[in-house]
Specification:
The complex is a heterodimer of chains A (about 350) and B (about 80).
Chain A: H1 8-13, E1 39-45, E2 48-53, E3 56-63, E4 66-70, H2 78-95, H3 110-114, H4 118-121, E5 130-134, H5 140-143, H6 146-152, E6 165-169, E7 190-192, E8 196-202, E9 205-212, E10 220-225, E11 230-238, H7 253-266, E12 278-283, H8 289-311, H9 316-321, H10 326-332, H11 339-349
Parallel strand pairs in A: 4-5, 5-6, 6-7, 11-12
Antiparallel strand pairs in A: 1-2, 2-3, 3-4, 8-9, 9-10, 10-11
Chain B: H1 31-36, H2 53-59, H3 62-66, H4 68-71
Classes of the chains: A alpha/beta (about 350), B mainly alpha (about 80).
Bound molecules: zinc ion.
């Protein structure tokens, strides 16, 4: 589906596709896989929209305060992403969707609510700009669009208007290859340290960043939208493959397991049905607690198998040859991040007693 | 809406523990074979086991006569 026909209703009907995966191997390539160069939009809940661009998931909060993005996808998709965002922003703004919260002094909701009268009296309210970007990690498939998207946005950190700010955990950008360093405009203009950071009250809800130490990398962030009850998980959760563990960038299997358990701790189940807290993975379809629990189980079982194999004295080669992931390979082992790569990352990063 | 009807109980397991059997260590995989005296491979043999030709295969399989049924495990 192209974004040409997008209205709020059409957007609600638009479904995301199961994307292929741009991962550690493929993420340095600039072009997305063939057939994977489209942008798809899914309304999640409240202000939150899930946008799939070239296989990477981007999360957008759209409302009276502007647009806040979690990740920007790969660089090759920037133009299409911006076009889609502009259209979505306009559609959402024109329909005057009520905000979650109208308490407080934040503009008293007047601008937002009045927009329901606007179609009769004037042109729809102008959409607000992209004000900020949060990166869940500094992988090329999640921050590749930073330069273009930030330049298209506008924020007021000081007095003069600036490009949209870019925020990440302080450890996120610390592992860039020296051979191809990031352009300065792609790097975070703001960084937070420690376990968590209360970003702001944005579009009527609290937005909190949670650092997940040593998981997919050592600079992973999960973004929590506390009013819409949505988590943007980044690559610790990946519905298309085994979790990509970037050991060189400080990632570890134990950190991934911990992060998934953290999501389960925070998420609230909607009894006997799909729903409750919605969790947006770095790649692949939208999930809820049950999906995360299955994924957590799988990842934990794989870690335990590698641990047991190491305990038996098996070498990495022997563990790979034993095909210990075989029962899950049909579901998670079909991308360019192969089961062998996953096993190797688990082996190298697990707290296993290696002789 | 009533509160969530399920209660969490402590099962003596470490938080985040996922119960599972390591490869080759699941004792229950032999359960059906033992109970019904089915030769190895039949319960997990897939589509092939639905066809009459499979019977010939089974009858020449020594496990059918000397195997699990003979041992009487689980009966
Ligand atoms: Zn990714």
């Amino acid at each position: 589906m192209t974004m040409k026909t997008l209205t709020a209703a059409a957007a609600a009907a638009a479904l995301l596709a199961l994307p292929g995966h741009a991962n550690v191997v493929a993420q340095r390539q600039s072009a997305p896989a063939p057939g994977n160069d489209v942008v798809r939009v899914l309304p999640v809940r409240g202000n939150i929209w899930m946008i799939n661009a070239g296989g990477s998931n981007i999360v957008a909060s759209i409302g009276k305060d502007g647009v806040l993005l979690v990740d920007t996808g790969g660089a090759a998709m920037s133009e299409k992403l911006l076009a889609a965002l502009q259209q979505l922003n306009r559609a959402v703004t024109a329909t005057g969707m009520p905000q979650k919260s109208c308490v407080g002094v934040v503009q008293g909701c007047s601008w937002w609510n009045s927009s329901t009268f606007l179609p009769a009296t004037a042109a729809p309210a102008a959409p607000k700009p992209i004000v900020g970007i949060v990166n869940t990690s500094f992988d090329a498939d999640h921050m590749g669009g930073n330069v273009a998207v930030s330049a298209a946005g506008r924020s007021h950190v000081g007095i003069a208007p600036l490009d949209a700010w870019i925020m990440a955990h302080e450890k996120a950008p610390s592992h860039q290859p020296k051979s191809s360093p990031l352009p300065p405009a792609a790097g975070p203009s703001e960084a937070y340290e420690g376990d968590s950071f209360k970003l702001n009250f944005f579009n009527g809800e609290g937005v909190v960043l949670w650092h997940m130490p040593a998981a997919h990398t050592d600079g992973d962030t999960i973004v929590q939208f506390r009013g819409s009850e949505v988590l943007a998980a980044g690559d610790v959760l990946n519905m298309t493959s085994y979790p990509v563990i970037d050991v060189e960038k400080g990632g570890s299997i134990d950190g991934v397991v911990k992060a998934l358990n953290w999501i389960l701790d925070v998420a609230v189940v909607e009894h006997m049905m799909e729903g409750g807290t919605l969790i947006i993975p770095g790649h692949g379809r939208l999930t809820d607690s049950a999906d995360v629990a299955y994924y957590r189980d799988m990842v934990t079982i794989m870690r335990d198998r590698v641990r047991a194999a190491v305990k038996k004295g098996m070498t990495l080669q022997q563990i790979k040859a034993a095909k210990i992931t075989r029962d899950y390979d049909g579901r998670f082992g079909k991308t360019s991040y192969t089961p062998d790569m996953f096993i190797e990352a688990v082996y190298k990063s697990c707290s296993c007693a290696k002789s | 809406m009533p509160p969530h009807p399920c209660t969490a109980v402590f099962e003596g397991l470490e938080k985040g523990h996922v119960p599972h059997f390591l490869p080759g260590e699941n004792p229950f995989l032999k359960d059906i074979r033992a109970r019904y005296g089915v030769p190895a491979g039949a319960p997990t043999g897939g589509a092939e086991t639905m066809y009459p030709e499979y019977e010939a295969k089974v009858s020449t399989n020594s496990l059918w006569t000397q195997g699990d049924r003979a041992s009487g495990v689980g009966r």
